[in-house]
């Protein structure tokens, strides 16, 4: 059975309210498919009964399960490759010059899913920073399940086969039964936390690079603008912002400018952008 219009509206409003994700009409089949396992996990006979009970008796835990289920968690190692090449060939050489006093780099993987992007960034820095340098990588996601998975640092053979070169698998992972576990060499530099990018940001130290990739496409224009403004507050004035290939700040926030970065592009503060808390927003 497919979701009724009222059921789809209820789920859409919940996801929009809690995660600012827009579910357009036509996604009923996707929503139902994602919620079938959730309904079963709580003992409901089907999705309709699950949603009906949730409307009668609001349950924050079950609402969170819906958010987790409908959050897209498509990811892989070194996804799309070009942003990582740009980091290696363009961004890091510049940062090594400008951060010579501190010898430290901070990067935020702002939608880290199950951790592959954050750990890919760690591998990149591990292999390309000069001796004596340190780095911190913070991964955040709106899904509690994904944050827990990322923290474990364990991946199946199928997962490590998605974009991870064999040499780096051997060097940075160890066997854990049928799975592979990230080495302590990388884990000590990477942390994960639950975070909703559309809510006010907690206090954070500024970042040199932010990967905000394949996230804005799920938001309306007003939400995109708000997220970009908040990103500006924690991105260093000479920092780099990487978006997904289908995303842009153009027409949304003119305080950013798109710049070439190897074979891809990134975003930086436009010269003359307002200073202060919203210097890029």
From TrEMBL:
GO terms for molecular function: methyltransferase activity. GO terms for biological process: methylation. It is an enzyme of class 2 (transferase). Keywords: Methyltransferase, S-adenosyl-L-methionine, Transferase. It comes from the Bacteria. Gene3D superfamilies: Chemotaxis receptor methyltransferase CheR, N-terminal domain (1.10.155.10), Vaccinia Virus protein VP39 (3.40.50.150). It catalyses: L-glutamyl-[protein] + S-adenosyl-L-methionine = [protein]-L-glutamate 5-O-methyl ester + S-adenosyl-L-homocysteine. SMART domains: MeTrc. Pfam families: CheR, CheR_N. InterPro entries: Bact_Chemotaxis_MeTrfase (IPR050903), CheR_C (IPR022642), CheR_MeTrfase (IPR000780), CheR_N (IPR022641), CheR_N_sf (IPR036804), SAM-dependent_MTases_sf (IPR029063). PROSITE patterns: CHER. Residues 1-272 form the CheR-type methyltransferase domain. SUPFAM superfamilies: Chemotaxis receptor methyltransferase CheR, N-terminal domain (SSF47757), S-adenosyl-L-methionine-dependent methyltransferases (SSF53335). Its EC number is 2.1.1.80. PANTHER family: CHEMOTAXIS PROTEIN METHYLTRANSFERASE, CHEMOTAXIS PROTEIN METHYLTRANSFERASE 1. This is protein-glutamate O-methyltransferase.
């Amino acid at each position: 059975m497919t979701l009724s219009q009222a059921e789809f509206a209820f789920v859409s409003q919940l996801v929009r309210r809690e995660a600012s994700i827009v579910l357009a009409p036509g996604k009923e089949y996707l929503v139902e498919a994602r919620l079938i396992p959730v309904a079963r996990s709580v003992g409901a006979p089907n999705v309709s009964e699950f949603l009906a009970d949730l409307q009668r008796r609001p349950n924050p835990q079950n609402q969170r399960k819906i958010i987790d289920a409908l959050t897209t968690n498509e990811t892989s190692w070194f996804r799309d490759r070009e942003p990582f090449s740009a980091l290696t060939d363009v961004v890091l050489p510049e940062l090594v010059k400008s951060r010579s006093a501190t010898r430290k780099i901070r990067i935020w993987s702002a939608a880290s899913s199950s951790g592959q992007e954050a750990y890919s960034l760690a591998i990149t820095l591990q292999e390309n920073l000069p001796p004596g340098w340190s780095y911190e990588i913070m991964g955040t996601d709106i899904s509690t399940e994904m944050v827990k998975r990322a923290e474990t640092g364990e991946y199946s053979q199928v997962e490590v086969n998605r974009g991870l070169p064999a040499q780096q698998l051997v060097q940075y992972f160890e066997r854990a039964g049928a799975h592979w576990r990230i080495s302590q060499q990388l884990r000590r530099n990477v942390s994960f936390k639950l975070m909703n990018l559309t809510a006010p940001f907690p206090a954070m130290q500024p970042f040199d690079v932010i990967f905000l990739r394949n996230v804005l496409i799920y938001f309306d224009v007003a939400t995109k603008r708000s997220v970009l403004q908040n990103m500006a507050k924690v991105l260093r004035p000479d920092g780099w912002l990487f978006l997904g290939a289908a995303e842009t700040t153009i027409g949304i926030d003119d305080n950013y400018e798109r710049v070439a970065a190897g074979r891809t592009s990134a975003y930086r503060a436009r010269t003359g952008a307002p200073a202060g808390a919203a210097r890029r927003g």
